[in-house]
Amino acid sequence: MIGRAILGALVATGFFETTAMADVLDDIRERDELSCGVNAGLAGFAAPDANGNWTGFDVAFCKAVAAAVLGDPSKARFVPTDLDTRFQLLKDGQVDLLVRNSTWTFSRDTALELEFAGVNYYDGQGFMVRKDLGATSVKELDDLPICVQAGSTSAQNLNDYFRAHNMTLRPVEVVSDAEGERRYTAGECAAYTTDASGLAATRAAFADPENHIVLPEIISKEPLGPVVNQNESRWADVVRWTLFALIAAEEYGVTSKNIEELVKSSTNPEVQRLLGVSDDLGAMIGLDREWARRAIQASGNYGEIFAANIGEQTPIGLARGLNAQWTQGGLMYAPSFR
Predict the structure, then answer these.
(1) Nearest CA to 39 among 143, 192, 180?
(2) Cα separations (Å) of 83 from 37, 40, 338?
């Protein structure tokens, strides 16, 4: 039995905190699998095909993390989650990492004891309506039924917006994207509101997308990003710096196609450190020196992932906007690898 004095010393020196930090990364390695909580089915972000193979923007990030930690992007397992279960599954340890359209907020960061490891998509709440409604602004939705997911940040934003503009709100609460889509298309709602990226994904899946429009107003800031539990510092660092590696790779022109060439030829010190040529940064987060190289090779850099899954040439059709590199007028910016 450990004496109280020794126990106190161990707590003071952070022994138990350090042990806890190691648990997630060590557990993933022991089972040789990364478990990612994702949206149950949001086109372009995370959705299974007829054979059960998952693809999408969020899926690609999970694969990058799996490649960094386990050396193989195929070792990512995808667990569908909904609004009610997503955070509890993470807290219960049923998933190692949550990567789905979850907004970073004060209460989630503090009261729920979660840690957002960065922002992989800057979003905002929008509204979709049928073109024949004739509406051109959210302010024309006064006293009309609006589908919104119960318990979401979208529901609170909707209430705040209508109250601030002295409008009558008639919410039609739904429990999932699927129910929201069903009730909207059935005509039970004049509008459907959620993150603008989600509306684009939903609209793209319609048989008649040309008959629906997303109104121009964005009524909130919705920074979406990967989530881990608090007090898992080392694991949070792995997730955070994998995201930064993908963002930095785009900035420095490192792609899935030219990465091997740049490993041999780049004279840019930042690229050399990123790719493990000149420094072993991986040792600082419990990984090897080629972790970032594998993450980029898995599905490409941030820009490649965006373009392949949700970009303007896909059915989702999203412009980069705020998610462009900082050098191109966006907010995507990675701290230095040094």
Answers:
(1) 180
(2) 11, 10, 38
Let me know if 265 is exposed, middle or buried by CB neighbors in 10 A (0-12, 13-18, 19+).
exposed
Mapped onto helix, strand or coil, the DSSP state of residue 8 is helix
Per-run averaged pLDDT (10 residues), the chain, 338 residues: 38 41 83 95 92 96 98 97 90 94 92 94 96 96 95 92 96 89 94 94 91 95 95 95 98 97 96 95 95 97 98 95 97 95
Question: Residue holding tokens 């091997």?
Answer: 260
pLDDT tens, 193-252? 999 999 999 999 899 999 999 999 999 999 999 999 998 999 999 999 999 999 999 999
Cα–Cα distance, 39 to 102 (Å, whole number) = 10
Residue among 228, 275, 277, 279 at smallest CA distance from 255: 275
Report the distance separating Cα 31 and Cα 17, nearest Å: 22
Structural contact between residues 73 and 64, judged by C-beta atoms closer than 8 angstroms: yes
Q: Cα–Cα distance between 242 and 302 in angstroms, integer?
A: 11
Name which of 264, 200, 220, 163 is nearest 44 in CA terms: 200
pTM exceeding the 0.85 threshold for the entire prediction:
yes
Taking the C-alpha atoms of residue 215 and residue 203, their distance in angstroms, rounded to an integer, is: 13
